[in-house]
Write a structure and sequence with these properties.
Shape: globular
Mean pLDDT: 94
Largest sheet: 6 strands, mixed
Order of helices and strands: HHEEHEEEE
Strand content: over 45%
Strand order of the largest sheet: 2-1-6-5-4-3
Structural class: alpha+beta
Distance between the termini: 33 Å
Low-confidence stretches: none
Radius of gyration: 14 Å
Number of helices: 3
Length: 125
Amino acid sequence: MPHARISEALRALVFEPDPDEELHRTLDRYYAPGYTHRSDGRTLNREEFAHMVAGVRGQITKGEVTVLDEIRDGDTYAERHVFHLTLADGATQSREIAIFGTFAEDGRFQNLSETGFDVAVDETR
């Protein structure tokens, strides 16, 4: 089975979600049942992660992700990307994110840890 990629998960979950697909089905494609997500020191279990994604996806009207670096070695994954998004209120955000994690045996993410920082749009293109 092919391994998940965070850029594909971001597109499917928040930047280009299929309005006919329920969130839990999209999550099931990319994240293992025991998935944990750590972001800037805070760890979420899969249920908490799903709740966070549900809240965020309702606020984002447009988004894009550009992968800068990505590597997989066995069940270990590392990726660095930049995203640009527009919120429903018109605000924009651009961030560079570094992610490290592991895959479950079926190729879905088992856990991911991420950290990032804001960047100016002209710094990322």
